Write the structure tokens for this entry.
Amino acid sequence: MKSIKHVVLSVGLLLMLLLAAAGCSPNQTETPKEDDTKTTPNTEAAATYVGDDACKSCHDEASTAFHGTKHSEALQPISEFQLTGDLPEVELFDGADPDNTKPVKIDLSSAKLYGVMVNEYLLAEVPGFKSNIYRVAKLVKNGDKYDVQAAKSVDVDKDGTEDWQAADGTSCAKCHAPGVLVESPTLGVSCESCHGPGSAHVAAAPDKKKGSIMASPTSALPDTGTCLECHRSDPEKDDNGTLIANNHYGARNWFASEHARSGQLTGCMACHTPHKANAKGQLLLEDNAADVCAACHAGDNIDLEKLMWKNPTDPHNHITADHSFGAMKYEDMGDDPDTKEIEITNPAYVDLVKKAFPDLAE
Ligand code: HEC
Ligand code: HEC
Ligand code: HEC
Ligand code: HEC
Ligand code: HEC
Ligand code: HEC
């Protein structure tokens, strides 16, 4: 733990210096860094989204590396997928409006398509429907090609046969296709999903570039694309009111970790980088996860497999590496292994959750 103390000390020192520079008293540690407060007004008021291509000419290295990451592939054009047939004409029912039992005929080959999220759902506009963005179809692997099927099959008009329902995709788009919702030329996760709209920065004179865009998105401004906004770590309640650990977002139980609670780490960036994938395609600072830990825990006995446990019953087990780093151990959760959710019934953990998320205490 020697090296940890070093980190703790130097971070502490840095914080004191920063606070002194900003003229804050030490109990105001939540105050955004100077940089962020400065950039907020001009980026938010005037700037619009210009898309990733607009960053490339000056940030070529970051742009090239970014395009090998999962973020940049969050939404892919349908042309990236070899289909077994043509995109069909279909009769769609509006999943966002259950009272509407009148279908709309739409030819998917000429519809306004946004792209495919998680290599599975085709997102598109459906003129005349209630919502702005729908999961109109699902791509299902068939050999090395894909069949196009209904995103959801429901007997909407109660005639005894299943109908092709377009599922509302607005909530999914918030994280999987944020560019669609803000009318950016880049429809998936882009530089601006984290840094905020960039037009003012692009237009700024060379000596005014610094400070004209959010430099450090994770440090403040919780509503402008921090990691946790998409990679939520909070548990949820199931239909019975039981707390369940949230598997979907990839940073499960981060809130409970010593890393998060000690306030001594630069958040997710202590181990990750958003700008470049490692040799294994992961957004980690090192090729081997153990080396990431060794930067601060050299000599500590860390069993990564055990600490970053995966939900043994999750069908997508790769999205569930636990981020509580031992603060919430699987064997202590009180999980019912017969369900695919992870129930949290251990009273000590339930307490921990309710303290962190008062909303869940009711
Ligand atoms: C015309 C060139 C140019 C373009 C285009 C450009 N940048 Fe920059 N960017 C710069 C320069 C120059 C700096 C300042 C470097 C320095 O002084 O440290 C900078 C700095 C930044 C910073 C750090 C800001 C700070 O206050 O430290 C971020 C983040 C950034 N750019 C993101 C982007 C994004 C995202 C885009 C595309 C929307 C973009 N840039 C487009 C030239 C450009
Ligand atoms: C997933 C969120 C995310 C995405 C996407 C992202 N960044 Fe960043 N960027 C950050 C964070 C967080 C920082 C703060 C520095 C750090 O800790 O790495 C940062 C820092 C920067 C900086 C200033 C410091 C440095 O590392 O040079 C520049 C310039 C920058 N980003 C440009 C870009 C460009 C260009 C893109 C798109 C090609 C991009 N970023 C995509 C989160 C992101
Ligand atoms: C709050 C943000 C957020 C919302 C809302 C959201 N997702 Fe996700 N989703 C994510 C993140 C982040 C990941 C990646 C996690 C990882 O890589 O570990 C993900 C992963 C996935 C995966 C990949 C699972 C796998 O193993 O292949 C699927 C499928 C998925 N999401 C579908 C959806 C659908 C459908 C919706 C809308 C009903 C949706 N998501 C809404 C953030 C979100
Ligand atoms: C102390 C180091 C560390 C910190 C801090 C950290 N992570 Fe991770 N994260 C890892 C490691 C190591 C992996 C790879 C786990 C694996 O491959 O099994 C990972 C994997 C992931 C994954 C992919 C999930 C998977 O199972 O493949 C996502 C998404 C993620 N982290 C998001 C985040 C976010 C968001 C934060 C901040 C809230 C964060 N991480 C903070 C170390 C860290
Ligand atoms: C706008 C939403 C959004 C934001 C903001 C965001 N992510 Fe992601 N992230 C995603 C989605 C969506 C995926 C899954 C992409 C896919 O597989 O389709 C993902 C995937 C990842 C992965 C897994 C990649 C892998 O190796 O499998 C990591 C790690 C990750 N994000 C870290 C971060 C970090 C760190 C930040 C903050 C700097 C961040 N993300 C901010 C949406 C977001
Ligand atoms: C940037 C430095 C840094 C990195 C990188 C880092 N840690 Fe930590 N870690 C800390 C600090 C600081 C603490 C909290 C202070 C303490 O408990 O000594 C901590 C605490 C922990 C704890 C709780 C220790 C305890 O005694 O309760 C575990 C477990 C842990 N880290 C595992 C990991 C793993 C696994 C990785 C790699 C995926 C990692 N850490 C990467 C700095 C780091």
Summary: The chain has four domains: 1-31, 34-73+178-228, 75-176, 231-361.
